[in-house]
Amino acid sequence: MSSSSSSSSPSCPKKMITLKSSDGETFEIEEIAALQSKTLESMIDENCASTPVPLPNITGKILAKVVEYCTKHAEVGADAESLRAWDAEFVSVDHPTLFDYILAANFLEIPTLLNLACQSVADMVKGKTPDEIHKIFNIKSTFTPEEEEELRRENQWAFD
Amino acid sequence: MHRRLHQPHLPHSDSPAAPSSSSSDDAAAKRGKKRGSYNCGRCGLPKKGHSCHAGSSPSPAPDSSSSASAAAASTPVSAAAPAAAASSASAASASAVALAPSSLASASRRPPQPPPPLLPRHPISHLRRALSFDDLDVRADEEEEDFDEVEPDLDERDRDFVDGDADAGGLPARCLWEVLRRLPPAELLAVARVCKGWRETSRRVWRAAEDLKLRVPSRAQLCFVGSVLNKCPELVRLSLRMESDVDATMLACIAFSCPNLESVEISTSSNAVNRITGDELGRFVADKRCLTCLKMEGCSNLGGLVLSSSSLSTLWLSDLNSLSKMVFNCPNLREISLEFSRNGNDCTDLIAMVDGLGRSCPILQNIHIASVRLSHAVVLALTASNLRGLRMLSLVLGSEITDASVAAIASSFSDLELLDLSGSSISDSGIGMICNVFPETLSRLLLALCPNISSSGIQFATAQLPLLELMDCGMTVCDSNNESLISDEAINHGMEKRPNSSLHLIHQKLIIKHSKLKKLSLWGCSGLDALYLNCPELNDLNLNACKNLLPDRLLIQCPSLENVYALGCQELLIEVIQNQVNNDSFPVENHLPFKRLADGSKRVRVPHFLCQQQFDVDKKQRSRRRPCNVLAE
Fold it and tell me: Would the CB atoms of A134 and B138 count as touching at under 8 Å?
């Protein structure tokens, strides 16, 4: 990652950039924290981040959490254990929110958050039958009954 | 595969009680060796000649070294951009990949003995993709022997159905891909039933797979493996744990389904019999032009083996028995590990084999041979070859290896980094020769179960080898009349306790001061009654079965110590160890015991340096990073 141009001396104010969610809310985030997003990083590099950055794909509610995540992960001196615990807490949310995290992390290219959220969803999927998955994620099966039956028969040993 | 040579002298590589310890060095290079580390802790490649670029390089992960028998099994995760990728796919995938922690793929098929000490990191390529049973979890420190049963998915009808926006539960295909690729194989098959979008994405995940670890249960048929392999045509690394007999049809299936295969590993669990013959294996290897790594255990039916391959660079075979000939026409071979059966009926001509090895594999760097028939003549055949690049030499179980063999080794190979002559008959003068020739390169010295070594030899080695990081002297300084459980186990492992009648092997003391030593194993040294250690970098200390070590003659000043194994030691000793390693404020006692030896001739005194350094040690102790585990269960 390119280094931030902000000075690290305590007397200088931290460089912030502003993000604007799809519903018009604005959020300030330290440039250093924002560097975790590849998208934002390249914008900062190209000096496009001096005005509020519009993020039409991300709602205010989610953007607030993303900012929180990046800020937390940009902290120095956090020890691995407590960060892990914090992460675990961060993803203890309902699945629509998790999906939103994934989408946001994907759009903003935040690899750590993407990994965290995807892994959580994967963990939720593990060990579940397709029906349970349908329920949890509100998905409809697009198979015909015959197809379903066939698939079921094929995989009946998959969960031994 | 390669069974443990003997008792856990380096327990972190072996004992189930061992906590995840510091370096993944513990993952032995040769499967089952579980001693010392041949492999880089970060990416699993043999350390020799390796500069680790874990985390940065886009080259394929070197997880073909299945060394990490205990290493966490999660495999390198790389997001290969799926076909219907969104615009930012490739960039995102590369970055997503770079941060996904991964660990050694080829990790243990074997019931991990020691939970992989440290999760080795892999260099991740954005082109690679791995499927394994294990959690691709950032947090995974334990290795998951989560071998799944996987049944064939025979439904090939709707193969290329592309589900438009894949609004499967609100996730676009790209994101669903990221989720599904973190699932183990069995789950991946199962989620295909959720809806068409999920099925399509799961198929893409399969197609991108480059690594696969599969357990083949006993009732599975060949077509099962075949159908799974058919899903991943890009497979580069395959690891099979067979629970039923395996023969050449499996090899044919693998050869047919996976054209790009570079690494094959076949392990067998208890009842499975490996019926592959030498001819069949030879044909497989010769046909697979890009095979670089082959590891196979249970090789008792080979009969004879002629391997010809210009690509093969790593070869591990175990349970070898009575091979009529063993020829390796593999000019690119760098690492070879051959373990012969120990039941005494092996009649392989090792001399001819080693002779041939020297001639046809000129760039060999790591050699490991375990056989009770190793002898001085075999060593001579090896040293007569021109293996200039040899860095790691391990010739174990050969009681006929003598000091003369050491002389030969010392004069032919000048740059050894690891020397393992466990089970041999070398004596202190052999150690002297080793220290003469290898002080600038040797970092690992293993001399377990060498009955002719005494504590002065050990002490000499630690004093003369400045780069030493691992020293294994298990079962050396001990009384042959000892009928403890330990020696029984040693016998069970094929090591015979040779009688030594020397009285001088009891009441021995060891004083070791070394600035780099990280692991020291003195298991079974029941002849030791005093031990003084001053090793600032020492992480692991094995004192299992040092039952005569006296509590008031123990001084451990090793602030970095993380694990001490004290199974079978006196209760009081264990307490003393606990106190010494965990107390922040080091009691400044007078640790200058004076004692007369049994023959009344000498006083034993703690050397002066130990006192002077006590104060420094106190300070270091207070800033100890983590508490030391004393394991005595």
Answer: no
Residue B464 φ/ψ, nearest 5 degrees: -100, -10
Six token digits for residue B167: 């609004």
Residue tagged 């993000």 (tokens): A19
Among A73, A94, A108, A126, most B C-beta atoms within 10 A, so best to mutate, is: A126
Q: Is the Cβ–Cβ distance between A126 and B183 less than 8 Å?
A: yes
Residue B193 is given by DSSP the state G
Contact A107 B88 (CB under 8 A): yes
Among B86, B154, B197, select the one facing A154 at the smallest CB separation.
B154
> How confident is the model over B11-46, as pLDDT tens digits?
333 333 333 333 333 333 333 344 444 555 555 555
State whether residue A115 sits within 8 Å of chain B by CB. Answer: yes
Beta bridge partners of A29: A17
Which of A110, A94, A126, A113 lies closest to B170, judged by CA?
A: A94
* Burial category of B409 from C-beta neighbours within 10 Å (exposed 0-12, middle 13-18, buried 19 and up): buried
Nearest CA in chain A to B170: A99
The token duo for B183 is 């699932």
- Do residues B422 and B6 touch, judged by C-beta distance below 8 A? yes
Q: CA angle at residue B432 from B430 to B438, to 5 degrees?
A: 100
Q: What is the ipTM, given to two decimal places?
A: 0.84
What distance in Å separates the CA atoms of residue B73 and residue B134, rounded to the nearest whole number? 6
Structure tokens at B280: 């069949």
For residue B96, CA distances in Å to A105, A106, B93, B176 come to 10, 9, 5, 14
Q: Tokens at residue B355, please?
A: 């002779």
